[in-house]
Design goal:
- The chain is of the alpha+beta class and 410 residues long.
- It has three domains: 10-99, Double Stranded RNA Binding Domain, CATH 3.30.160; 104-210, Orthogonal Bundle (DNA polymerase, domain 1); 221-397, hpI Integrase, Chain A (Orthogonal Bundle).
- The chain is built from 17 helices and seven strands.
- A four-stranded antiparallel sheet has the order 1-2-3-4, with helices on one face.
- Strand 3 and strand 4 form a beta hairpin.
- It is elongated, with a radius of gyration of 31 Å.
Length: 410
């Protein structure tokens, strides 16, 4: 007569918590309860005969390993025994093999390291690292060959509608990492990329045009003066960096990477090298009186090469530092990049400066290649007048343009 199997129930297993001993589920699977009170533990055990000896194979603790999972492990172990294989040895061999395979995190980190030399600034690399560390955290410890569509969706779906831009970047970066894994032979060449959009995830997630898209959230230029008054109430280096960013209409990466060697105080010019510019062209920034005042005060406490140093003087301020200033000031609907839009709107609506001068101030490349070839100058002096007018607008709320307090780095 065949022995009964699957005698336990999920509810019954939970009710056994106060009864020490072995409780049979049939098929040589047992729930073992050891100890009492706070020291009590429940674990699954599979018993089998191997080479004439009784062997015990632990399957895991309950409830981390459910009754259904324990039965599945028992059935697989039975199959191996019938096939003449020791299930304990087979499990150890599988673990050793798995340990030698790279995880998604291993491949992602190696890719960033290999590609970092191509990226124009440190911020770009920092964004890749943050995205693939914070938002792709559930994938990092999984073997890269096990990343499937379900795994990709598990990290995309929670932010797909809430943070559409971040989610889109995350999807693209996961796809690139998986392509890199395939190129290295960690994934079979004929396996489809589970993070691919066209013909795959576009059937499972809302299309991008259905999501919130558009320009970086920006503050109205009319509100900038009052905001800067509040901003000057902070002594943190990140707040000072944000004011300098607003005054120069520069990109945050250009400001965070600014070095004293790029600043000519006498000429009141900040020259950003091509290697740190989006368009890969050197950009001269005329400095307004207020911008110079900011720099002079910072120069008094200069302890390194960076104008806006981070916690360590030999490294720049964090790429998220200025965004965090906005969050602390409850400006959740504004981005640092959005102040460039505020500047452009102000220049177009409130001044008579030519469009090309305003665009040059933003380091935008305008016109076709022929027009660019004839426009060899950068209209520095015209832009100087524009930036001085912008600084006056920013200071329009009446705060002193020359009082700058310094505290510790943030």
């Amino acid at each position: 007569m065949a022995r009964a199997r699957n005698k336990l129930t999920t509810r019954g297993v939970a009710a056994l918590s106060l009864q020490p001993g072995r409780h049979s589920d049939g098929g040589s699977l047992y729930l073992v309860i050891d100890g009492e009170g706070a020291t009590m533990r429940r674990r699954w055990l599979y018993l089998f005969n191997w080479s004439g000896k009784r062997r015990e194979m632990g399957i895991g603790g309950f409830p981390a390993v459910s009754l259904a999972e324990a039965r599945k492990a028992r059935d697989e172990a039975e199959r191996l025994v019938r096939a003449g294989r020791d299930p304990i040895a087979a499990r150890e061999a599988a673990r050793r093999e798995q340990a030698g395979k790279p995880t998604f995190g291993n491949v992602a980190d190696a890719f960033i390291e290999a590609k970092s030399a191509e990226w124009r600034n440190e911020k770009h690399g920092a964004q890749w690292r943050m995205t693939l560390t914070k938002y792709a955290a559930p994938l990092r410890n999984r073997p890269v060959e096990q990343i499937d569509t379900e795994a990709v969706l598990s990290v995309l779906q929670p932010i797909w509608n809430r943070k559409p831009e971040t989610a889109a970047r995350l999807r693209g970066r996961i796809e690139v990492v998986l392509d890199a894994a395939r190129a290295k032979g960690h994934i079979p060449q004929n396996d489809a990329n589970p993070a691919r959009w066209r013909g795959h995830l576009d059937k499972l997630l809302p299309k991008r045009q259905q999501l919130s898209r558009g320009h970086h959230p920006a503050m109205s230029y009319a509100d900038v003066p009052a905001f800067v008054v509040k901003l000057r109430g902070s002594e943190a280096i990140a707040a000072i960096a944000l004011e300098f960013t607003i005054l120069t209409a520069a990109r945050s990466g250009e400001v965070l990477g600014a070095r004293w060697a790029e600043i000519e105080m006498g000429a009141r010019v900040w020259t950003v090298p091509a290697s740190r510019m989006k368009a890969a062209r050197e950009h001269r920034v005329p400095l307004s009186g207020r911008a110079v005042a900011v720099l002079k005060k910072l120069a008094e406490a200069n302890v390194g090469e960076f104008v806006f140093p981070g916690q360590c003087a030999d490294k720049p301020l964090s790429s998220m530092a200025m965004e965090m200033v906005l969050r602390r000031m409850k400006q959740d609907d504004v981005t640092v990049h959005g102040f460039r839009s505020a500047f452009r709107d102000w220049a177009g609506n409130e001044t008579h400066f030519p469009r090309e001068v305003a665009e040059a101030a933003l380091a935008h490349v305008i016109g076709d290649k022929a027009e660019q070839a004839y426009r060899r100058g950068d209209a520095l002096e015209k832009r100087r007048a524009l930036m001085e007018a912008w600084a006056q607008h920013v200071d329009d709320a009446g705060s002193s343009p020359n009082v700058i307090a310094l505290r510790g780095r943030a």
